[in-house]
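#struct-pred

JT: dropping the chains for the assembly here, can someone run the whole complex?
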Amino acid sequence: MDAKVRVRFAPSPTGGLHLGGVRTVLFNYLFAKHNNGEFILRIEDTDQSRFVSGAEQYILDTLAWCGLSPDESPVHGGAYGPYRQSERKADYKKYADQLIAQGNAYYAFDTPSDLEAKRAEIPNFQYSRAHRMEMKNSISLSAEEVEALLKNNTPHVVRIKMPENEEVVFEDIIRGEVCFDASTVDDKVLLKADGMPTYHLAVVVDDHLMKITHAFRGEEWLPSAPVHILLWKYLFGLDQMPKWAHLPLILKPDGHGKLSKRDGERLGFPVFAMDWTDPITKETTIGFKEKGFLPEAFINLLALLGWNDGTDKEIFTMEELIANFSLDRVHKGGAKFDYEKAKWFNQEWIKIMDNEKLSQLVQPYFDQAAIEIHEHDYLVKIIGLVKERCHLLPDFITQSAFFFKAPTTIDTASIAPKWEVKKQQFFEALVGIYTDHISAGKQTIPAIELEAHFKELATLHELKPGELMLPFRIMLVGGKFGPGVFEIVEAIELKDTCNRIQYCLQLLSTN
RNA sequence: GGCCGGUUCGACUAUCGGUUAGGUCGCCAGGUUUUCAUCCUGGAAAGACGGGUUCGACUCCCGUACCGGCUACCA
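RK: done, full complex below.
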Protein backbone atom coordinates (compact mmCIF):
# COMPACT_ATOMS: atom_id res chain seq x y z
CA MET A 1 0.00 0.00 0.00
CA ASP A 2 1.32 3.43 -0.94
CA ALA A 3 2.10 6.08 1.66
CA LYS A 4 -0.62 8.54 2.51
CA VAL A 5 -1.03 11.24 -0.13
CA ARG A 6 0.50 14.54 0.93
CA VAL A 7 0.58 17.61 -1.28
CA ARG A 8 1.68 21.16 -0.67
CA PHE A 9 1.00 24.63 -1.94
CA ALA A 10 4.11 26.72 -1.51
CA PRO A 11 3.61 30.39 -2.31
CA SER A 12 6.00 33.25 -1.73
CA PRO A 13 4.55 35.99 0.45
CA THR A 14 5.16 38.75 -2.08
CA GLY A 15 1.70 40.12 -2.76
CA GLY A 16 -1.81 39.19 -3.80
CA LEU A 17 -2.72 35.66 -4.88
CA HIS A 18 -3.77 35.59 -8.49
CA LEU A 19 -5.98 33.26 -10.47
CA GLY A 20 -3.19 30.91 -11.44
CA GLY A 21 -2.04 30.62 -7.85
CA VAL A 22 -5.49 29.86 -6.55
CA ARG A 23 -6.02 27.26 -9.23
CA THR A 24 -2.78 25.57 -8.24
CA VAL A 25 -4.01 25.44 -4.65
CA LEU A 26 -7.35 24.14 -5.83
CA PHE A 27 -5.89 21.27 -7.83
CA ASN A 28 -3.63 20.39 -4.92
CA TYR A 29 -6.55 20.45 -2.53
CA LEU A 30 -8.87 18.51 -4.80
CA PHE A 31 -6.28 15.85 -5.43
CA ALA A 32 -5.50 15.53 -1.74
CA LYS A 33 -9.12 15.31 -0.65
CA HIS A 34 -10.06 12.96 -3.47
CA ASN A 35 -7.37 10.61 -2.23
CA ASN A 36 -8.04 11.08 1.46
CA GLY A 37 -4.72 12.82 1.74
CA GLU A 38 -3.32 15.89 3.40
CA PHE A 39 -2.93 19.39 2.08
CA ILE A 40 -0.05 21.43 3.41
CA LEU A 41 0.61 25.15 3.15
CA ARG A 42 4.29 26.02 3.17
CA ILE A 43 5.48 29.60 3.01
CA GLU A 44 8.48 30.11 0.75
CA ASP A 45 9.90 33.26 2.24
CA THR A 46 13.53 32.75 1.34
CA ASP A 47 13.91 35.97 -0.59
CA GLN A 48 14.22 38.70 1.99
CA SER A 49 14.31 41.40 -0.65
CA ARG A 50 10.89 40.46 -1.93
CA PHE A 51 9.22 39.78 1.38
CA VAL A 52 6.05 41.80 1.85
CA SER A 53 4.48 42.09 5.26
CA GLY A 54 0.86 41.04 5.42
CA ALA A 55 1.17 38.77 2.41
CA GLU A 56 1.19 35.59 4.47
CA GLN A 57 -1.95 36.59 6.32
CA TYR A 58 -3.50 37.48 2.98
CA ILE A 59 -2.78 33.99 1.67
CA LEU A 60 -4.36 32.46 4.75
CA ASP A 61 -7.42 34.70 4.40
CA THR A 62 -7.75 33.84 0.74
CA LEU A 63 -7.63 30.11 1.39
CA ALA A 64 -10.24 30.53 4.10
CA TRP A 65 -12.54 32.49 1.80
CA CYS A 66 -12.16 29.86 -0.91
CA GLY A 67 -12.87 27.05 1.52
CA LEU A 68 -9.47 25.46 0.90
CA SER A 69 -8.32 24.98 4.42
CA PRO A 70 -4.87 23.42 4.90
CA ASP A 71 -4.32 20.47 7.19
CA GLU A 72 -0.90 21.80 8.11
CA SER A 73 0.48 25.33 7.90
CA PRO A 74 2.35 27.96 9.92
CA VAL A 75 -0.88 28.68 11.80
CA HIS A 76 -2.61 25.31 11.67
CA GLY A 77 0.53 23.59 12.90
CA GLY A 78 1.47 20.01 12.06
CA ALA A 79 4.10 17.39 12.66
CA TYR A 80 6.49 18.58 9.96
CA GLY A 81 7.03 22.22 10.93
CA PRO A 82 8.19 24.83 10.86
CA TYR A 83 6.20 25.68 7.76
CA ARG A 84 8.08 28.85 6.90
CA GLN A 85 11.28 28.26 5.01
CA SER A 86 12.98 31.19 6.70
CA GLU A 87 12.70 29.18 9.91
CA ARG A 88 14.35 26.10 8.43
CA LYS A 89 17.63 27.67 7.42
CA ALA A 90 19.82 25.15 9.22
CA ASP A 91 18.36 22.20 7.30
CA TYR A 92 19.29 23.61 3.94
CA LYS A 93 22.85 24.33 4.94
CA LYS A 94 23.26 20.74 6.03
CA TYR A 95 22.18 19.38 2.68
CA ALA A 96 24.23 21.93 0.77
CA ASP A 97 27.28 20.73 2.71
CA GLN A 98 26.41 17.17 1.85
CA LEU A 99 26.24 18.00 -1.83
CA ILE A 100 29.62 19.68 -1.72
CA ALA A 101 31.13 16.71 0.12
CA GLN A 102 29.71 14.41 -2.56
CA GLY A 103 31.10 16.59 -5.35
CA ASN A 104 27.66 17.47 -6.67
CA ALA A 105 27.96 21.12 -5.71
CA TYR A 106 30.68 23.72 -5.23
CA TYR A 107 31.41 27.11 -3.71
CA ALA A 108 31.35 30.13 -5.98
CA PHE A 109 32.87 33.43 -4.93
CA ASP A 110 31.89 35.59 -7.87
CA THR A 111 30.30 38.86 -6.83
CA PRO A 112 27.12 40.10 -8.43
CA SER A 113 29.14 42.64 -10.37
CA ASP A 114 31.53 39.92 -11.57
CA LEU A 115 28.55 38.08 -12.98
CA GLU A 116 27.10 41.18 -14.49
CA ALA A 117 30.35 41.92 -16.24
CA LYS A 118 30.58 38.40 -17.54
CA ARG A 119 27.05 38.53 -18.89
CA ALA A 120 27.79 41.79 -20.62
CA GLU A 121 30.92 40.33 -22.13
CA ILE A 122 29.51 37.01 -23.32
CA PRO A 123 26.12 36.86 -25.03
CA ASN A 124 23.85 34.20 -23.56
CA PHE A 125 26.30 33.56 -20.77
CA GLN A 126 25.51 30.48 -18.72
CA TYR A 127 27.29 29.60 -15.50
CA SER A 128 27.94 26.05 -16.60
CA ARG A 129 30.62 23.73 -17.88
CA ALA A 130 31.49 26.09 -20.71
CA HIS A 131 32.49 28.95 -18.43
CA ARG A 132 32.88 27.36 -15.03
CA MET A 133 36.67 27.43 -15.17
CA GLU A 134 36.74 31.12 -16.04
CA MET A 135 34.92 31.96 -12.83
CA LYS A 136 35.97 32.13 -9.23
CA ASN A 137 34.87 28.92 -7.56
CA SER A 138 36.04 25.82 -5.77
CA ILE A 139 36.47 23.98 -9.04
CA SER A 140 38.60 26.59 -10.81
CA LEU A 141 40.56 27.62 -7.72
CA SER A 142 43.12 25.57 -5.80
CA ALA A 143 42.18 23.95 -2.53
CA GLU A 144 44.38 26.38 -0.63
CA GLU A 145 42.82 29.41 -2.26
CA VAL A 146 39.33 28.14 -1.51
CA GLU A 147 40.22 27.44 2.08
CA ALA A 148 41.65 30.92 2.51
CA LEU A 149 38.61 32.52 0.96
CA LEU A 150 36.34 30.53 3.23
CA LYS A 151 38.41 31.33 6.28
CA ASN A 152 38.11 35.05 5.55
CA ASN A 153 34.34 34.74 5.36
CA THR A 154 34.37 35.80 1.75
CA PRO A 155 30.78 36.00 0.58
CA HIS A 156 29.95 32.98 -1.51
CA VAL A 157 27.14 30.88 -2.83
CA VAL A 158 26.79 27.17 -3.37
CA ARG A 159 26.06 26.04 -6.92
CA ILE A 160 24.99 22.68 -8.21
CA LYS A 161 27.48 21.07 -10.56
CA MET A 162 25.43 19.99 -13.51
CA PRO A 163 26.72 16.73 -14.95
CA GLU A 164 27.99 16.26 -18.49
CA ASN A 165 26.49 13.83 -20.92
CA GLU A 166 23.55 12.99 -18.76
CA GLU A 167 19.96 12.77 -19.80
CA VAL A 168 17.48 13.68 -17.12
CA VAL A 169 14.21 11.91 -17.77
CA PHE A 170 11.13 11.98 -15.63
CA GLU A 171 7.45 11.22 -15.83
CA ASP A 172 5.09 14.17 -15.53
CA ILE A 173 1.56 13.11 -14.62
CA ILE A 174 -0.07 15.38 -17.14
CA ARG A 175 2.64 15.66 -19.77
CA GLY A 176 4.08 12.19 -19.84
CA GLU A 177 7.79 11.61 -20.24
CA VAL A 178 9.89 14.77 -20.34
CA CYS A 179 13.56 14.64 -21.19
CA PHE A 180 16.39 17.15 -20.72
CA ASP A 181 20.05 17.20 -21.57
CA ALA A 182 21.61 18.14 -18.22
CA SER A 183 24.50 19.97 -19.83
CA THR A 184 22.15 22.57 -21.31
CA VAL A 185 21.07 23.67 -17.84
CA ASP A 186 23.33 26.05 -15.92
CA ASP A 187 24.80 25.53 -12.47
CA LYS A 188 21.97 27.00 -10.44
CA VAL A 189 22.65 28.67 -7.14
CA LEU A 190 21.44 26.46 -4.31
CA LEU A 191 22.47 28.45 -1.29
CA LYS A 192 22.67 32.23 -1.45
CA ALA A 193 25.35 34.41 0.11
CA ASP A 194 23.00 35.27 2.95
CA GLY A 195 22.73 31.60 3.83
CA MET A 196 19.18 31.28 2.54
CA PRO A 197 18.42 28.54 0.06
CA THR A 198 17.06 29.28 -3.38
CA TYR A 199 13.80 27.71 -4.42
CA HIS A 200 15.67 24.84 -6.05
CA LEU A 201 17.26 23.53 -2.89
CA ALA A 202 14.42 24.43 -0.57
CA VAL A 203 11.71 22.73 -2.58
CA VAL A 204 13.59 19.45 -2.70
CA VAL A 205 14.67 19.43 0.92
CA ASP A 206 11.26 20.43 2.22
CA ASP A 207 9.31 18.10 0.00
CA HIS A 208 11.44 15.32 1.37
CA LEU A 209 11.27 16.38 5.00
CA MET A 210 7.54 16.95 4.78
CA LYS A 211 7.00 13.60 3.06
CA ILE A 212 5.31 15.14 0.03
CA THR A 213 4.06 12.45 -2.34
CA HIS A 214 2.82 14.59 -5.22
CA ALA A 215 4.25 17.92 -6.28
CA PHE A 216 2.09 20.17 -8.43
CA ARG A 217 3.15 23.56 -9.72
CA GLY A 218 2.75 25.85 -12.70
CA GLU A 219 4.23 24.98 -16.05
CA GLU A 220 6.77 27.80 -15.71
CA TRP A 221 8.73 25.43 -13.46
CA LEU A 222 9.21 22.76 -16.07
CA PRO A 223 12.59 24.06 -17.31
CA SER A 224 14.11 23.84 -13.85
CA ALA A 225 12.75 20.38 -13.17
CA PRO A 226 16.04 18.67 -14.12
CA VAL A 227 17.80 20.56 -11.32
CA HIS A 228 15.26 19.26 -8.86
CA ILE A 229 15.40 15.72 -10.20
CA LEU A 230 19.17 15.71 -9.88
CA LEU A 231 18.99 17.05 -6.35
CA TRP A 232 16.59 14.27 -5.45
CA LYS A 233 18.96 11.76 -6.94
CA TYR A 234 21.97 13.14 -5.06
CA LEU A 235 20.27 13.69 -1.73
CA PHE A 236 17.43 11.26 -1.14
CA GLY A 237 17.21 8.86 -4.05
CA LEU A 238 14.84 8.92 -7.01
CA ASP A 239 12.63 6.25 -5.46
CA GLN A 240 11.74 8.76 -2.75
CA MET A 241 10.85 11.52 -5.15
CA PRO A 242 7.26 12.79 -5.35
CA LYS A 243 5.32 12.45 -8.58
CA TRP A 244 5.38 15.68 -10.55
CA ALA A 245 2.59 17.44 -12.34
CA HIS A 246 3.16 20.73 -14.14
CA LEU A 247 -0.12 22.56 -14.51
CA PRO A 248 -1.01 24.56 -17.62
CA LEU A 249 -0.86 28.33 -17.34
CA ILE A 250 -3.72 30.78 -17.24
CA LEU A 251 -3.26 33.21 -20.09
CA LYS A 252 -4.31 36.73 -20.96
CA PRO A 253 -7.78 36.88 -22.55
CA ASP A 254 -6.52 39.03 -25.39
CA GLY A 255 -3.12 38.83 -26.96
CA HIS A 256 -0.72 36.35 -25.49
CA GLY A 257 1.23 35.47 -22.40
CA LYS A 258 0.72 34.69 -18.76
CA LEU A 259 -2.14 36.52 -17.09
CA SER A 260 -0.84 39.30 -14.90
CA LYS A 261 -2.11 41.89 -12.48
CA ARG A 262 -1.71 44.53 -15.17
CA ASP A 263 -4.10 42.70 -17.51
CA GLY A 264 -6.86 42.95 -14.99
CA GLU A 265 -6.32 46.66 -14.56
CA ARG A 266 -6.14 47.14 -18.30
CA LEU A 267 -9.21 45.06 -19.13
CA GLY A 268 -11.28 45.90 -16.06
CA PHE A 269 -11.57 42.63 -14.19
CA PRO A 270 -9.94 41.22 -11.05
CA VAL A 271 -7.04 38.79 -11.19
CA PHE A 272 -6.48 38.52 -7.44
CA ALA A 273 -8.76 36.40 -5.29
CA MET A 274 -9.31 39.17 -2.77
CA ASP A 275 -8.43 42.85 -2.51
CA TRP A 276 -4.73 43.35 -2.03
CA THR A 277 -3.32 46.58 -0.71
CA ASP A 278 0.37 47.11 -1.14
CA PRO A 279 1.69 48.07 2.31
CA ILE A 280 4.14 50.54 0.86
CA THR A 281 2.34 52.24 -2.01
CA LYS A 282 -1.08 51.77 -0.37
CA GLU A 283 -2.34 50.91 -3.81
CA THR A 284 -5.27 48.49 -3.79
CA THR A 285 -5.82 45.88 -6.46
CA ILE A 286 -9.36 44.61 -6.57
CA GLY A 287 -10.18 40.98 -5.89
CA PHE A 288 -12.92 38.62 -7.03
CA LYS A 289 -14.39 38.64 -3.55
CA GLU A 290 -14.81 42.39 -3.41
CA LYS A 291 -15.99 42.53 -6.99
CA GLY A 292 -18.96 40.50 -5.83
CA PHE A 293 -18.11 36.91 -6.66
CA LEU A 294 -19.31 34.03 -4.52
CA PRO A 295 -16.49 31.76 -3.39
CA GLU A 296 -18.43 28.79 -4.75
CA ALA A 297 -18.52 30.38 -8.19
CA PHE A 298 -14.89 31.43 -8.06
CA ILE A 299 -13.79 27.90 -7.22
CA ASN A 300 -16.12 26.46 -9.83
CA LEU A 301 -14.84 28.63 -12.66
CA LEU A 302 -11.22 28.00 -11.72
CA ALA A 303 -11.74 24.25 -11.65
CA LEU A 304 -13.20 24.31 -15.15
CA LEU A 305 -10.24 26.27 -16.49
CA GLY A 306 -8.18 23.34 -17.67
CA TRP A 307 -10.23 20.52 -16.25
CA ASN A 308 -13.59 18.87 -16.88
CA ASP A 309 -15.17 15.63 -15.80
CA GLY A 310 -15.78 14.39 -19.31
CA THR A 311 -19.50 15.17 -19.27
CA ASP A 312 -21.37 18.38 -20.08
CA LYS A 313 -21.68 19.26 -16.42
CA GLU A 314 -20.28 22.68 -15.61
CA ILE A 315 -21.70 23.64 -12.25
CA PHE A 316 -19.93 21.82 -9.45
CA THR A 317 -19.98 22.13 -5.70
CA MET A 318 -16.74 21.60 -3.83
CA GLU A 319 -17.93 18.14 -2.80
CA GLU A 320 -18.63 17.22 -6.40
CA LEU A 321 -15.25 18.52 -7.48
CA ILE A 322 -13.52 16.45 -4.84
CA ALA A 323 -15.47 13.37 -5.83
CA ASN A 324 -14.79 13.76 -9.55
CA PHE A 325 -11.38 15.36 -9.77
CA SER A 326 -8.69 13.51 -11.60
CA LEU A 327 -5.37 14.74 -12.92
CA ASP A 328 -5.65 12.76 -16.11
CA ARG A 329 -8.47 15.02 -17.19
CA VAL A 330 -6.34 18.13 -16.80
CA HIS A 331 -5.51 19.83 -20.07
CA LYS A 332 -1.97 20.24 -21.31
CA GLY A 333 -2.47 23.59 -23.00
CA GLY A 334 -2.81 26.95 -21.29
CA ALA A 335 -6.26 28.50 -21.03
CA LYS A 336 -7.18 32.09 -21.78
CA PHE A 337 -9.21 33.62 -19.01
CA ASP A 338 -12.68 34.79 -20.10
CA TYR A 339 -14.28 37.25 -17.71
CA GLU A 340 -17.69 36.95 -19.39
CA LYS A 341 -17.82 33.26 -18.64
CA ALA A 342 -16.59 33.94 -15.12
CA LYS A 343 -19.58 36.22 -14.57
CA TRP A 344 -21.87 33.58 -15.98
CA PHE A 345 -20.63 31.12 -13.36
CA ASN A 346 -21.35 33.65 -10.67
CA GLN A 347 -24.83 34.31 -11.99
CA GLU A 348 -25.57 30.59 -12.01
CA TRP A 349 -24.39 30.33 -8.42
CA ILE A 350 -26.49 33.30 -7.36
CA LYS A 351 -29.52 31.63 -8.92
CA ILE A 352 -29.07 28.40 -7.00
CA MET A 353 -27.91 29.89 -3.73
CA ASP A 354 -30.24 30.00 -0.77
CA ASN A 355 -31.88 33.45 -0.36
CA GLU A 356 -31.16 33.61 3.34
CA LYS A 357 -27.47 32.99 2.72
CA LEU A 358 -27.44 35.53 -0.08
CA SER A 359 -29.05 38.13 2.12
CA GLN A 360 -26.15 37.94 4.53
CA LEU A 361 -23.62 38.36 1.73
CA VAL A 362 -25.54 41.24 0.22
CA GLN A 363 -26.20 43.13 3.44
CA PRO A 364 -22.78 44.85 3.49
CA TYR A 365 -23.42 46.27 0.04
CA PHE A 366 -26.69 47.79 1.24
CA ASP A 367 -24.93 49.26 4.25
CA GLN A 368 -22.32 50.72 1.96
CA ALA A 369 -25.01 52.25 -0.23
CA ALA A 370 -26.68 53.65 2.90
CA ILE A 371 -29.90 51.76 2.23
CA GLU A 372 -31.55 50.80 5.46
CA ILE A 373 -33.06 47.37 5.79
CA HIS A 374 -35.80 47.46 8.41
CA GLU A 375 -36.92 43.88 8.15
CA HIS A 376 -34.56 41.06 7.39
CA ASP A 377 -37.36 38.83 6.08
CA TYR A 378 -38.31 41.52 3.62
CA LEU A 379 -34.77 41.57 2.26
CA VAL A 380 -34.80 37.79 1.85
CA LYS A 381 -38.05 38.02 -0.08
CA ILE A 382 -36.77 40.77 -2.37
CA ILE A 383 -33.62 38.79 -3.08
CA GLY A 384 -35.79 35.98 -4.34
CA LEU A 385 -37.57 38.42 -6.61
CA VAL A 386 -34.48 39.91 -8.26
CA LYS A 387 -31.73 37.29 -8.02
CA GLU A 388 -31.94 36.04 -11.59
CA ARG A 389 -31.13 39.54 -12.79
CA CYS A 390 -27.83 39.69 -10.91
CA HIS A 391 -24.40 38.68 -12.15
CA LEU A 392 -22.40 40.11 -9.27
CA LEU A 393 -23.38 40.82 -5.69
CA PRO A 394 -23.44 44.64 -6.11
CA ASP A 395 -26.06 44.16 -8.84
CA PHE A 396 -28.52 43.53 -6.03
CA ILE A 397 -28.28 47.22 -5.16
CA THR A 398 -29.16 48.48 -8.62
CA GLN A 399 -31.77 45.78 -9.07
CA SER A 400 -33.57 46.21 -5.78
CA ALA A 401 -32.81 49.58 -4.17
CA PHE A 402 -36.29 50.82 -5.14
CA PHE A 403 -37.86 48.20 -2.91
CA PHE A 404 -36.39 49.97 0.08
CA LYS A 405 -36.68 53.61 -0.89
CA ALA A 406 -38.37 55.56 -3.65
CA PRO A 407 -36.22 56.09 -6.74
CA THR A 408 -34.54 59.47 -6.85
CA THR A 409 -34.20 59.72 -10.59
CA ILE A 410 -37.25 59.01 -12.72
CA ASP A 411 -37.01 58.39 -16.41
CA THR A 412 -39.90 60.72 -17.24
CA ALA A 413 -38.51 61.18 -20.73
CA SER A 414 -39.83 57.71 -21.54
CA ILE A 415 -43.33 58.62 -20.35
CA ALA A 416 -43.76 62.24 -21.37
CA PRO A 417 -44.07 61.89 -25.18
CA LYS A 418 -47.19 59.70 -24.93
CA TRP A 419 -48.59 61.26 -21.82
CA GLU A 420 -52.19 62.49 -21.93
CA VAL A 421 -54.95 63.70 -19.67
CA LYS A 422 -56.73 60.36 -19.82
CA LYS A 423 -53.73 58.66 -18.31
CA GLN A 424 -53.35 61.32 -15.71
CA GLN A 425 -56.97 60.70 -14.69
CA PHE A 426 -56.42 56.98 -14.63
CA PHE A 427 -53.57 57.18 -12.19
CA GLU A 428 -55.42 59.65 -10.01
CA ALA A 429 -58.29 57.18 -9.86
CA LEU A 430 -55.87 54.39 -9.05
CA VAL A 431 -54.51 56.37 -6.14
CA GLY A 432 -58.08 56.90 -5.01
CA ILE A 433 -58.82 53.19 -5.04
CA TYR A 434 -55.62 52.32 -3.18
CA THR A 435 -56.38 55.01 -0.65
CA ASP A 436 -59.77 53.43 -0.05
CA HIS A 437 -58.09 50.10 0.58
CA ILE A 438 -55.74 51.70 3.05
CA SER A 439 -58.67 53.29 4.83
CA ALA A 440 -60.24 49.86 4.98
CA GLY A 441 -57.17 48.68 6.83
CA LYS A 442 -55.33 46.97 4.01
CA GLN A 443 -51.65 47.69 3.69
CA THR A 444 -51.18 45.57 0.65
CA ILE A 445 -53.00 43.29 -1.78
CA PRO A 446 -51.82 40.14 -3.58
CA ALA A 447 -50.29 40.79 -6.99
CA ILE A 448 -52.93 38.84 -8.93
CA GLU A 449 -55.72 40.91 -7.47
CA LEU A 450 -53.81 44.11 -8.09
CA GLU A 451 -53.45 43.17 -11.71
CA ALA A 452 -57.16 42.40 -12.06
CA HIS A 453 -58.15 45.72 -10.48
CA PHE A 454 -55.71 47.56 -12.65
CA LYS A 455 -57.15 46.07 -15.84
CA GLU A 456 -60.70 46.75 -14.82
CA LEU A 457 -59.92 50.34 -14.12
CA ALA A 458 -58.08 50.68 -17.43
CA THR A 459 -61.13 49.45 -19.35
CA LEU A 460 -63.28 51.86 -17.41
CA HIS A 461 -61.05 54.70 -18.56
CA GLU A 462 -61.05 53.39 -22.12
CA LEU A 463 -57.32 52.72 -22.03
CA LYS A 464 -55.35 49.62 -22.90
CA PRO A 465 -53.46 48.15 -19.93
CA GLY A 466 -50.44 47.87 -22.19
CA GLU A 467 -50.00 51.61 -22.56
CA LEU A 468 -50.26 52.05 -18.82
CA MET A 469 -47.80 49.41 -17.70
CA LEU A 470 -44.63 51.18 -18.69
CA PRO A 471 -45.52 54.51 -17.09
CA PHE A 472 -46.56 52.66 -13.95
CA ARG A 473 -43.30 50.76 -13.84
CA ILE A 474 -41.24 53.90 -14.28
CA MET A 475 -43.20 55.61 -11.51
CA LEU A 476 -42.37 52.75 -9.17
CA VAL A 477 -38.77 51.90 -10.03
CA GLY A 478 -37.56 54.93 -11.95
CA GLY A 479 -36.67 53.09 -15.15
CA LYS A 480 -37.35 50.23 -17.53
CA PHE A 481 -36.19 47.32 -15.44
CA GLY A 482 -37.13 45.14 -12.49
CA PRO A 483 -39.59 42.35 -11.69
CA GLY A 484 -43.31 42.38 -12.50
CA VAL A 485 -45.02 45.65 -11.57
CA PHE A 486 -47.71 44.09 -9.42
CA GLU A 487 -45.19 42.09 -7.47
CA ILE A 488 -43.46 45.36 -6.77
CA VAL A 489 -46.68 47.00 -5.63
CA GLU A 490 -47.46 44.08 -3.40
CA ALA A 491 -44.01 44.31 -1.85
CA ILE A 492 -43.76 48.06 -1.33
CA GLU A 493 -47.41 48.21 -0.26
CA LEU A 494 -50.22 50.57 -1.13
CA LYS A 495 -49.14 53.68 0.72
CA ASP A 496 -45.73 53.85 -0.80
CA THR A 497 -47.20 53.08 -4.21
CA CYS A 498 -49.55 56.04 -3.93
CA ASN A 499 -46.72 58.32 -2.91
CA ARG A 500 -44.62 57.30 -5.88
CA ILE A 501 -47.51 57.75 -8.32
CA GLN A 502 -48.33 61.17 -6.94
CA TYR A 503 -44.73 62.30 -6.96
CA CYS A 504 -44.46 61.30 -10.58
CA LEU A 505 -47.77 62.87 -11.62
CA GLN A 506 -46.51 66.09 -10.14
CA LEU A 507 -43.26 65.76 -12.06
CA LEU A 508 -45.17 65.21 -15.31
CA SER A 509 -47.50 68.15 -14.83
CA THR A 510 -44.70 70.61 -14.14
CA ASN A 511 -42.89 69.60 -17.28
C1' G B 1 19.79 32.57 -29.63
C1' G B 2 19.34 27.86 -26.61
C1' C B 3 16.24 24.39 -23.90
C1' C B 4 11.29 22.73 -22.76
C1' G B 5 6.07 22.75 -23.52
C1' G B 6 1.61 23.67 -26.29
C1' U B 7 -1.88 24.03 -30.84
C1' U B 8 -10.30 21.73 -32.18
C1' C B 9 -15.54 27.45 -33.36
C1' G B 10 -13.92 34.56 -30.87
C1' A B 11 -13.29 31.97 -25.53
C1' C B 12 -13.51 27.29 -22.29
C1' U B 13 -13.70 22.44 -23.99
C1' A B 14 -15.74 16.92 -25.74
C1' U B 15 -13.57 13.38 -29.04
C1' C B 16 -8.83 8.47 -26.57
C1' G B 17 -8.66 5.52 -35.76
C1' G B 18 -14.70 5.10 -38.47
C1' U B 19 -19.35 11.19 -35.63
C1' U B 20 -23.63 15.44 -40.12
C1' A B 21 -16.77 17.03 -35.12
C1' G B 22 -20.83 17.58 -29.58
C1' G B 23 -21.59 21.03 -25.28
C1' U B 24 -21.00 25.79 -22.59
C1' C B 25 -19.88 31.31 -22.59
C1' G B 26 -20.27 35.24 -25.90
C1' C B 27 -22.65 36.90 -30.50
C1' C B 28 -27.12 37.07 -34.02
C1' A B 29 -32.51 36.02 -34.96
C1' G B 30 -37.31 34.60 -33.07
C1' G B 31 -40.71 33.39 -28.88
C1' U B 32 -42.10 34.30 -23.57
C1' U B 33 -41.78 38.62 -20.20
C1' U B 34 -47.11 44.37 -22.08
C1' U B 35 -39.91 46.54 -19.09
C1' C B 36 -35.16 44.30 -18.11
C1' A B 37 -33.27 39.73 -16.71
C1' U B 38 -34.54 34.62 -16.63
C1' C B 39 -36.48 30.84 -19.71
C1' C B 40 -37.48 28.42 -24.66
C1' U B 41 -36.41 27.77 -30.11
C1' G B 42 -33.14 28.47 -34.02
C1' G B 43 -28.45 30.37 -36.36
C1' A B 44 -23.39 31.76 -37.70
C1' A B 45 -18.78 29.67 -35.93
C1' A B 46 -13.28 24.97 -35.42
C1' G B 47 -9.39 20.30 -36.32
C1' A B 48 -2.37 25.64 -37.97
C1' C B 49 0.31 23.66 -42.43
C1' G B 50 2.91 19.69 -45.20
C1' G B 51 4.27 14.82 -45.41
C1' G B 52 3.76 9.86 -43.90
C1' U B 53 1.36 5.08 -41.32
C1' U B 54 -3.68 3.01 -42.35
C1' C B 55 -9.11 0.41 -45.95
C1' G B 56 -9.90 4.90 -42.99
C1' A B 57 -6.86 10.13 -39.17
C1' C B 58 -8.75 15.79 -35.30
C1' U B 59 -6.91 11.35 -33.02
C1' C B 60 -0.51 7.74 -34.26
C1' C B 61 4.69 9.26 -36.43
C1' C B 62 7.98 13.04 -38.77
C1' G B 63 8.83 17.96 -40.37
C1' U B 64 7.33 23.18 -40.65
C1' A B 65 4.74 27.31 -38.75
C1' C B 66 2.74 29.85 -34.88
C1' C B 67 2.03 30.64 -29.55
C1' G B 68 3.89 30.20 -24.69
C1' G B 69 7.37 29.20 -20.61
C1' C B 70 12.35 29.30 -18.87
C1' U B 71 17.23 31.03 -19.62
C1' A B 72 18.58 35.77 -11.63
C1' C B 73 22.34 34.99 -5.24
C1' C B 74 12.98 35.78 -7.80
C1' A B 75 9.76 32.36 -6.97
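JT: nice. The longest helix of chain A spans residues 485-510. The domain at 355-401 of chain A is CATH 1.10.8.70 (Helicase, Ruva Protein; domain 3).
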